[in-house]
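Methods, example record. To illustrate the input and output format used throughout this study, we show the complete record for Poly(A) polymerase. The sequence lines were provided to the predictor; the line carrying structure tokens was produced by it.
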Amino acid sequence: MVGADALPSPRQHGVTKPLSLAGPSEADILRTKKLNKFLVDAGLYESQEEAAKREMVLGRIKQIVIDWVKQLTRLRGYTEQMVEDANAVIFTFGSYRLGVHGPGADIDTLCVGPSYVNRNEDFFFVLHDILTNMEEVTELQPVPDAHVPVMKFKFEGISIDLLYASISRLVVPDDLDISDVSVLYNVDEPTVRSLNGCRVADQILKHVPNVEHFRTTLRCLKFWAKRRGVYSNVTGFLGGVNWALLVARVCQFYPNAIPSMLVSRFFRVYTQWRWPNPVMLCSIQEAELGFTVWDPRKNPKDKTHHMPIITPAYPCMNSSYNVSISTLRVMTEQFQFGNQICEEIEVNKTQWPMLFEPYMFFESYKNYLQVDIIANNPDDLRAWKGWVESRLRQLTLMIERDTHGKLQCHPYPHEYIDPSNQLSHGAFFMGLQRKQGEAIQEGQQFDIRGTVEEFRHSVNMYMCWRPGMEIYVSHVRRKQIPLYVFPHGYKRTRTTRVSNIENGEVGRKRKDECTPVKQDSPSLKRQSMSPLSHCSDSVDNDKIQPNDEHGMELSSRGSGDMDMDQNSIMRYDVTSTA
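The corresponding predicted structure is encoded as:
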């Protein structure tokens, strides 16, 4: 029988008791059916053919790394018996291991090898050369200096992120239990981080009451996060493992809930969550191996984390250390948006598609920073863009620091390409606004030119820089946003209702509300319906004025190295005046 009298889960999941043991009502079951249909219609599930191809690709990669380890074993003079026994094991993690990957998603993979096969030379040089010479492999990009060293490539069109971990064994068995803490004996920190992706995925699946309900809910919320522009660990939002941990905790709070209930409860819980209280699936695990675990009582750096989401496998870490004050603000606003839509869904005022309306980023701010990345060819751009993108979070932090938090920065985790640019090109954008509630002082300025110069200097530290790799940072106003960022090359007007919900205005009237903007006015077709567009206290008061006709040029290599069409990039003095 379905309803509040549903039987509770047989055991407690998580560090606290459930918030509710209630099961679904008939209305909840109907809403879940509609949600499942929406997810299918949205194309979030891969075909059987693609699933079979992924399995084939993983099998090929497994054979490649086994042959690679056997080759190195022979070259190092081990016996023929050792060569015969030599082995490497492939594990998956991330969305593929959790069972929530969609069409075209990459496969996060980990290769575990013996102690005598190392990462720096054997993995990033020998295996790299093997992959380079294979016709099936394209877009090969080694990233040895990443927080978790990785080789990225496509194998017969399937995107692969391949990590490597050398453990303290001469022979790696096929049935290696990666969850056993013994795999961490005598390994370095990068190896621990590489191993923990798989270990965390396994622990997440063990700590949720119902795996299928968890998977459907996570698939839904990952799609929502991408549509709302808050899915990106590198930019300072949340990545796959972060969303998985947040969803898993909600599943623990409501062990008998089904997906439609869990999606609604997700927004209800995290709209009210008092950060920086941590989200944890289990108690922090201790061990005698000497690795640092997340503990703000002992580690001063842990006290600075804004949105701690703790991994459940030893050594327990904060998976969301990239979150800044600015990105937490953006996510909090999006949680509130999701919560309001779900409340309306529960009383049949709207339907699921409204929850997944894309966030109108380019209609939400008056001022933006545009970061253009240029290279001579696609391969150089891929490497250069990866480096620059990994540094964009630092620009957000620098702006927060240099303006004492009064100028808020919203990095948007989406790359745009100018098809008219003859060079290989990519662009990222950041929305800028004065902190809400701050008093506006006469003549107050936000001059972030020095901040941008510091960011430029940090980007220039790229060790693999090649001629043609350039970065340009410029200020653009909303009306100057290039048309190539918009679908079909033109701006569209969002409905008043979506605008009002995003700004929290449904059911209330703003005190500073100005004359309403009529929807049918021809002269306003391209204007945002956000209050920022027509109220006198908007961020447009923070004027960012150009020095001259073309404005100030901010280049990663200095003005002497720039040889670009003046119309290709808008360059402005990044000075904000109250």
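Annotations derived from this record:
Residues 1-8, 505-578 have pLDDT under 50 and may be disordered.
The longest helix spans residues 48-75.
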